[in-house]
Amino acid sequence: MTTDSMTLRESNIAKLREGVVYDALIIGGGINGAVSAAALSGKGARVALIDKRDFAGFTSQQSSNLAWGGIKYLESGDYLLVRKLCLSRNELIRSYPSRVKEIRFFATIDRGFRFSPFFLWLGTWVYWLFGNGFTRIPRFLTKDRIHREEPVVKTDKAAGGFEYSDAYLHDNDSRFVFQFVRSAMDRGCIAANYVESLGARRDGELWITRARDTRTGETFEIRSKILINAAGPFVDDHNQVTGEQTEHQHLFSKGIHLIVPRITPHQRILTFFADDGRLFFVIPMGVRTCIGTTDNRVDTPETEVTDADRDFVLENINKRVALAAPLKREDIIAERCGVRPLVVKRQGGDGSGRDWMQLSRKHEIDVDRAHAHLSIFGGKLTDCVNVGNEVARIVAGLGIDLPHAGYRWYGEPHRSVYEEYMHQARLMNLDSYTSPESIEPLSSRLWRRYDQQAFELLAQIREDPRRAEVLIKGTDYLRCEIQLAKRQEMIVTLEDFLRRRSKIALVVPRRQIQEAEGLMDACEILFGEAAQARYAEYFGESRSVTRAQSRHLESDAA
Q1: Is the pTM above the cut of 0.85?
Q2: Which Pfam families does the record associate with it (predicted)?
């Protein structure tokens, strides 16, 4: 295979096999590994990143899509954590104005709850102050006001409520994580998905990690001065393989969300307390709604949604909102299921000394200075910038030279870059290509997904307006976007694209995706001769390319 015909992933794996000594090898491409790679590479370190699955292919694709300060931790007295998370949320809103947006939480409290609505409303003011008053001020909600402003909420048992602000991701969590990986690669990081660590050993001053390409089965070694274990809920497993002893360990809490047809047209998050006392959310997701979550202690990171989980979520939502017909299992469009890795100390670390649902999502980084090894435990999306900065400080303290230590490695491009992009978009009347079904202008959508890479899309559309056509009917993805994704986003399976680089699989029913006009066209662009195999891998059956789709492909090849 020539260099010109290699995919980005194949090229990066070839570089990993060259025997270069990296300053740091990061195991795991979830949010912790992604920000570690972005921070270190941005500051000038030579970094490699591998993940046995796709980037954000496990825990980091199963979140609530929220960037929030953890208001529930006020009740457990974790005030320093709440303060830290609120400031982290503020920084994300400032740094990613197109991706992380303030949103109102509209909470309803039933009569007989352990706290009155007025007391909880006072708590939201404390929360607002912890965040330096960065967001809009809280509001107290009477029962009548709840009914007027959100008639879908059942108020027959309500005592009142309150409204406050936090933030959410406009796109999905896994896309947000991948953008950190992409920025790391732009700054020299060599990253590859579907490459697993088979274990590592210390050899003199270096770590020697045995790696395996899970798609081909080929093995090779990666040499690094420092090893960073960012394997999410599998941190303990990898430490056991490498013989690392740590102060902390993980416990696991399983949480699920169900994606259903849109419950309310209002762009706010409806908040309740579920029957088990846990916060329960109704989260907007474009033309859909995400509802949940559960909180069940489990012993393993490998989980699945059960009928009991589905019934719990559906029963709780049907008790609290008034729909034309109650939601049933048949209304579920997609499901999310994952574990929250909760950090506890190994000594007495079974979580028994504290209410299970009050255990926080704080992070801890255990450092073995003698062996130059880091283990990142816990964490959540909101705290990601802090994790990246902390890893960079520790790595510098272990003797790795960071020639650009003051570099700000996160955030969208400077406002002037955005303004130039929007100016070019207006000059070519880009928004006239917006699909009638879209909920936002094309110009803002392309910027949010690709920031500086969106200039390349503008150039393609100027050259050939057909590149602006929606390729997969029923989605917001253009032909030129999928062509860019093939070159730049290391898509190996169809699920990588449908579930993580995009959120198509979260908001479009599976059968509708399977029958969508243009899907096989997209598969041909992404996978070439392997299109049929990738389709069959995802759907379990093959599908032929239509004559119309083949004609599109011929024009692309030309």
Answers
A1: yes
A2: DAO (PF01266), DAO_C (PF16901)
Catalogue the E-assigned strands of 142-300.
158-169, 190-193, 195-203, 206-213, 219-229, 248-261, 269-273, 279-285, 288-292, 296-298
Q: Residue range 216-229: average pLDDT?
A: 98
User: Residue 357: its pLDDT value, please?
Assistant: 58
Report whether 533 contacts 444 (CB < 8 A).
no
Tell me what pLDDT residue 543 has: 64
* CA dihedral sign, ordered 142, 148, 153, 154: positive
pLDDT (tens digit per residue) in 177-205: 999 999 999 999 999 999 999 999 999 99
| Strand ranges for 405-499 from DSSP E | none
Token pair 């202008």 is at which residue? Answer: 441
Cβ atoms of 308 and 229 closer than 8 Å: no
- Tokens 């009477």 locate to 142
Mean of the per-residue pLDDT values of the chain: 92
CA angle 366, 372, 378 (to 5 degrees): 25
Q: So what's the pLDDT on residue 476?
A: 87
Quick one: how far is CA 374 from the chain centroid?
A: 23
pLDDT attached to residue 380: 87
Residue 473 binned pLDDT confidence (cut-offs 50, 70, 90): confident
Vertex 408: Cα angle to 128 and 185 (nearest 5): 120
In contact, 264 and 290? CB cutoff 8 Å:
no
- What is the separation of C-alpha 536 from the centre of its chain, rounded to a whole number of angstroms? 26
DSSP string covering 62-84, please? SS-SEE---GGGGTTT-HHHHHH
Provide the residue type at 207 as one letter. W
**pLDDT greater at residue 323 or residue 76:** 323
Closest CA to 363 of 88, 49, 19: 88
The sign of the torsion formed by the CA atoms of 408, 409, 411, 412 equals positive
Instruction: Tell me the C-alpha distance between 480 and 457, whole Å.
Output: 6
Which residues, at least 6 apart from 249, have a Cβ–Cβ distance to it below 8 Å?
Answer: 236, 343, 344, 345, 346, 349, 377
Taking residues 508-534, report their average pLDDT.
Answer: 94
Instruction: Compute the CA torsion angle 328, 331, 336, 340 (nearest 10 deg).
Output: -30
